[in-house]
């Protein structure tokens, strides 16, 4: 490994240029992917190698050939802020640098922009859509954001300010104000002309039609426009039944609508029906991934981060601890129950052999049921009206699995210790399974009805509650039949 | 509640028509959504009520106003196959019924089509895209699918057969063969004319350009076409750097590409570069949701179903049991360890008070780490090259949390029983946390490198292994310091 200060001239430049050579890279890719490494792994390694060698020219060439999204990925994965800044500065052209910026995560944006002047940042942002600008500025201190906005074209900055005034996770907060709309009495010919002139609305899928008060009244596809006589007014060809969302709708609900109606973009309206923006499907894709990640992390009590290696470890620990504390209290309660039954345990010590099984299995069975329900509620395959169907199904499955595991446990108990203990363990397990599946099914639906996020239910509460129930049932039964166990 | 047979004429028809009335429905919606019910809940309830009353005319009217995707949702949620068929039959127009069909899940498709003739099914499918037809036929017995295909237009059926020959979860299996491509020497004017005639490729976002051997060589946006002089050849305006995927690429990887490059559609090529289809972003949205669901269920060992209330309970139990059996064996091992240390436990019975804490906490801490890593690997925010950064971060967090929980436990132990036991418990917990976070971080990355799905790692193996480690450490320490605990 060469130190960073090493001069670039020790090898003929051609030899080093090859590292960034497309064919060689492709070949390396083929070799390495077979060894389980992904393309981005290898690109990242190449960039790091070039950085370490200080091979600036080659690195810059390589970046020139890369897609902004791939550069953003590399920047995100570099470990030091210094390296991130170095790579970012080497991207040529402020349009491309702006695009890279719009694909970065919050921390990288802060690090990369830390030393830049407000005017430089305004320059980078000038070609981006207002939604991307709003996204980027959302990670900077409010004061700084305002100063940067003040340096941009008034037209652009008002649009950005419009988006920034809505909460980040609502339709208003993720929409773009660059959409293409026309009055209902425009003709197809006029529409095509306007379309040819419209330079900012780069991705036009639908043409939205509005009335005199700017209220959304219809929608047209681009192809519809090309296939009618030029003098037709839009009013006569548009579809009047437009699916739209209001500015304050939660982004998760927006995503669900776009997904279920297979839309490319969904218009966003104010409460009075005025069209104020659109949300395109590529942003919805991001929302869906984010929400799925969030739900999974919530279920494990680790919601802090949408990605690793970002926030400080102390911060991460702080966010994860409450969940662990809940568990700590719960399992201490289980411990207290064991302590309460200590005489039973001391008398028939074989009982301890099955404590872990009883404690773990109820929680696990519950986790299966609640994961299924929570995910179903999130994707819409389970509705809260399905509650009884779902409930009886899960309880039935719980019973079936309880009997299967219970029989095995009884046999194990019989062989290992004695017949009666086996029966007690088996029976406890079956009861614990029934309690567990019922609770795990009901809890998320009840929470959802109460307006609480059901993803938290699968977490510590259900598991802990199930563990306690299991142990209580087991030791109560064991104490009741103590004479037969001795 | 009225019996199903009750004649429809007992009330004036207007009174009942209102149930399906848009304004009333909207009002009910507002009332009910405030009570935590969703729009689809209420629509479902209305449909069920109309079905029960046998109010066929009103139901049919209501269905006439609904979007095919919403009808599909209702059909999916109806509990009996008979009801599903009834509602499906009431949808007017085979084009709309075809669309409803394409939005249904596998079980509902089978139930709804069960009694239909092959020719009727072929008629329903005639207006659908080949990807949708392939999706639907994929759920019917192969023989039946072939006979239906034989009844369709040869042109359509070859396209469907082309898709059906690829595995369901690859690019080839989810692509549509209805895309719009032109030779590189066509002019912009010709392109526009061809576009106006192309009736099947309903959603044109990009125009793909091919060479004489049908190989994909470039791409154009619709707007680019409109803004150049009519005589320009496509060769001169197209973008040559097209992002494409090969037919055999896994659908999850396809989704990742579409998401990271913000594409609306991605072209699918054969190994020789021939363009054979495209995958549109709305299908990618489905893939992303499916894969997230699958990962979540895998982590809980309940992969059987992407939705509840579908497959039989016995089937579901069979799929979930292996995971529980792994857990059973694991926790019996923990039990065996307790049994091995039974003399220690009998001598100082206070030890049992902390067994649940030690057993549960290690597993939970591991679950947090591995969920984070698994999700990161799935979304691409964690690369396998990040392994050390991620590892040290998680271990550090584990240590911090271990110290926090360890101190609390020491205090609890001190107050509850005696000082030395508290220290043993605290120390065991910290060690268990360290082991647990290390394993939970390393396992998914190692599994991924070995080509195994990392989502299984968060499940039973890591948790069980962590539980065993925790208990072993605790009881070993307790036995070593037994003299001080008495």
TrEMBL record, chains A, B:
<keyword id="KW-0813">Transport</keyword>
<keyword id="KW-0479">Metal-binding</keyword>
<dbReference type="Pfam" id="PF03448">
    <property type="entry name" value="MgtE_N"/>
</dbReference>
<feature type="domain" description="CBS">
    <location>
        <begin position="238"/>
        <end position="294"/>
    </location>
</feature>
<comment type="function">
    <text>Acts as a magnesium transporter.</text>
</comment>
<keyword id="KW-1003">Cell membrane</keyword>
<dbReference type="GO" id="GO:0015095">
    <property type="term" value="F:magnesium ion transmembrane transporter activity"/>
</dbReference>
<protein>
    <recommendedName>
        <fullName>Magnesium transporter MgtE</fullName>
    </recommendedName>
</protein>
<dbReference type="InterPro" id="IPR036739">
    <property type="entry name" value="SLC41_membr_dom_sf"/>
</dbReference>
<dbReference type="InterPro" id="IPR006667">
    <property type="entry name" value="SLC41_membr_dom"/>
</dbReference>
<feature type="region of interest" description="Disordered">
    <location>
        <begin position="1"/>
        <end position="21"/>
    </location>
</feature>
<comment type="subunit">
    <text>Homodimer.</text>
</comment>
<dbReference type="Pfam" id="PF00571">
    <property type="entry name" value="CBS"/>
</dbReference>
<dbReference type="InterPro" id="IPR006669">
    <property type="entry name" value="MgtE_transporter"/>
</dbReference>
<feature type="transmembrane region" description="Helical">
    <location>
        <begin position="458"/>
        <end position="482"/>
    </location>
</feature>
<keyword id="KW-1133">Transmembrane helix</keyword>
<feature type="transmembrane region" description="Helical">
    <location>
        <begin position="321"/>
        <end position="341"/>
    </location>
</feature>
<keyword id="KW-0472">Membrane</keyword>
<dbReference type="InterPro" id="IPR006668">
    <property type="entry name" value="Mg_transptr_MgtE_intracell_dom"/>
</dbReference>
<keyword id="KW-0129">CBS domain</keyword>
<dbReference type="Pfam" id="PF01769">
    <property type="entry name" value="MgtE"/>
</dbReference>
<feature type="transmembrane region" description="Helical">
    <location>
        <begin position="348"/>
        <end position="367"/>
    </location>
</feature>
<comment type="similarity">
    <text>Belongs to the SLC41A transporter family.</text>
</comment>
<dbReference type="InterPro" id="IPR046342">
    <property type="entry name" value="CBS_dom_sf"/>
</dbReference>
<dbReference type="InterPro" id="IPR038076">
    <property type="entry name" value="MgtE_N_sf"/>
</dbReference>
<feature type="domain" description="CBS">
    <location>
        <begin position="175"/>
        <end position="236"/>
    </location>
</feature>
<feature type="transmembrane region" description="Helical">
    <location>
        <begin position="423"/>
        <end position="446"/>
    </location>
</feature>
<keyword id="KW-0460">Magnesium</keyword>
<dbReference type="InterPro" id="IPR000644">
    <property type="entry name" value="CBS_dom"/>
</dbReference>
<dbReference type="GO" id="GO:0046872">
    <property type="term" value="F:metal ion binding"/>
</dbReference>
<keyword id="KW-0812">Transmembrane</keyword>
<dbReference type="GO" id="GO:0005886">
    <property type="term" value="C:plasma membrane"/>
</dbReference>
<feature type="transmembrane region" description="Helical">
    <location>
        <begin position="397"/>
        <end position="416"/>
    </location>
</feature>
């Amino acid at each position: 490994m060469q130190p960073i200060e090493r001069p670039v001239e020790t090898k003929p430049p051609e030899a080093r240029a090859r590292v960034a050579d497309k064919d060689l890279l492709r070949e390396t890719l083929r070799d390495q992917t077979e060894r389980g490494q992904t393309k981005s792994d290898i690109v990242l390694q190449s960039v790091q190698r070039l950085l370490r060698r200080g091979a600036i020219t080659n690195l810059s060439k390589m970046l020139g050939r890369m897609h902004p999204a791939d550069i953003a990925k590399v920047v995100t994965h570099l470990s030091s802020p210094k390296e991130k800044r170095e790579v970012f500065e080497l991207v040529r052209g402020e349009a491309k640098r702006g695009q890279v910026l719009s694909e970065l995560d919050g921390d990288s944006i802060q690090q990369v922009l830390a030393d830049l002047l407000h005017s430089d940042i305004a320059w980078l942002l000038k070609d981006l859509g207002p939604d991307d600008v709003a996204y980027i500025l959302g990670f900077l201190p409010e004061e700084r954001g305002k100063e940067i906005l003040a340096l941009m074209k008034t037209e652009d900055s008002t649009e950005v300010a419009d988006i920034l005034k809505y909460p980040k996770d609502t339709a208003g907060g993720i929409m773009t104000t660059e959409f293409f709309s026309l009055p209902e009495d425009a003709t197809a010919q006029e529409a095509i002309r306007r379309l040819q002139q419209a330079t900012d609305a780069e991705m036009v899928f639908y043409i939205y039609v509005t009335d005199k008060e700017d209220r959304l009244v219809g929608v047209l596809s681009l192809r519809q426009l090309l296939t009618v006589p030029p003098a037709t007014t839009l009013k006569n060809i548009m579809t009047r039944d437009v699916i739209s969302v209001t500015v304050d709708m939660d982004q998760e609900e927006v995503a669900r609508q776009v997904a279920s109606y297979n839309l490319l973009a969904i218009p966003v309206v104010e409460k009075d029906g005025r069209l104020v923006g659109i949300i395109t499907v590529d942003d919805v894709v991001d929302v869906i991934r984010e929400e799925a990640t969030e739900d999974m992390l919530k279920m494990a009590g680790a919601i802090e981060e949408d990605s690793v290696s970002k926030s400080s470890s102390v911060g991460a620990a702080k966010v994860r601890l409450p969940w662990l504390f809940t568990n700590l209290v719960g399992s201490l309660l289980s411990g207290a129950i064991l302590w309460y039954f200590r005489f039973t345990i001391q008398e028939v010590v074989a009982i301890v052999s099955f404590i872990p099984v009883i404690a773990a299995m109820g929680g696990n069975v519950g986790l299966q049921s609640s994961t299924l329900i929570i995910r179903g509620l999130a994707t819409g395959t389970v509705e809260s009206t399905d509650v009884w169907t779902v409930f009886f199904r899960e309880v039935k499955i719980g019973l079936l699995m309880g009997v299967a595991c219970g029989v095995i446990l009884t046999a194990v108990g019989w062989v290992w210790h004695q017949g009666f203990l086996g029966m007690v363990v088996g029976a406890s397990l079956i009861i614990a399974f029934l309690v567990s599946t019922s609770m795990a099914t009901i809890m998320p639906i009840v929470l959802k009805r109460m307006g609480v996020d059901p993803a938290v239910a699968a977490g510590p509460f259900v598991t802990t509650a199930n563990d306690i129930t299991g142990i209580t049932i087991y030791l109560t039964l064991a104490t009741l039949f103590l004479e037969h166990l001795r």
